[in-house]
């Protein structure tokens, strides 16, 4: 049973399908591991024991009858604490939402449950999802699997930790500026950022509704494909036959390679060379529209975040972590006309980007330019916090601004991820490419 905690979600699903794994025993194994883990309270905000067991028992009955609902029917997963859960508190890592209990499940959770996924509980996260570091002095800061003294990456910090520490087969998180990919990279996981609008955000606590996306954090690209299918209700992407021979990749030089720290840069260069040796064509590109889009970050993200939360925040600002409060309040300085003009400029940048990369199978860059920063210094050094947070989200934010699909893959070097940027609503193609890249990097 111990091996179950380290297996991929797809492997567990196949075990349930062939009768070698009982969903009830599987869920009991995960719940037992959670309850006995010395960092449980830093990873899970709430564990839904009764729901998990009821869902597992139903999955076991379906498996015995040969009526499984999906490849992940009976597989236990965790949910970031911004997905509403009927009758269970959903607080989004903030004291502002303490004791907020929704009356129904978020749409994505409802879809996944209808396909048989077992809900283990809700994982800790950065406050209101507005940080890429994962540090949260208000509720809890989950651990980084490679360095317990370092930040885990955010905002889907607990989602990543739940998988990395063997306390869930998959974590479901959100990504507004990198919040799935950063913690995936720092915890050696696969993280899929979906195109905005592909997965329903109904019933998920918002940050920036025009940029918010939902996606899985998991062990393999196959898991990511199955997780996406569970969130959308669509058929899983067929990954069979994925190969690198003849694929064309662009290495993005504009901004994405600036000031990258030594370890992520070495891991990136080595990964690109592996792809080249496997038969992929690698071409370096520069793209002025990336710089144009990134220049709009402060206007677009902060204005939308503050516009979404200003009334709740200003009613009780003393309840917030100071760094998060300050970041939100940057948005009140943005005039409405500037926000509208910024969106118009961003749409132009998106069109230019899509034309530039149309002939490529993916665009490559390091997922994060930095390594997981020290937690104690983040708490005591405001300048360090700001610098590391901005750097952690810099490369991932490119995908959010340009409206792309994207995925982060482990490189084999601890806490160093390789990001592949795909096309808008190009998840199927991206996942097939990622599967080939994954095989090359292993």
UniProtKB/TrEMBL annotation:
UniProt-listed InterPro entries: Amidase, Amidase_CS, Amidase_dom, AS_sf
Classification via SUPFAM superfamilies: Amidase signature (AS) enzymes
Pfam family, one: Amidase
Protein name: Aspartyl-tRNA(Asn)/glutamyl-tRNA(Gln) amidotransferase subunit A
UniProt-recorded Gene Ontology molecular function terms: transferase activity
Keyword field contains Signal: no
Sequence ranges assigned to domain Amidase in this UniProt record: 26-431
Keyword Transferase found: yes
Residues that span the membrane, as ranges: none
Keywords: Transferase
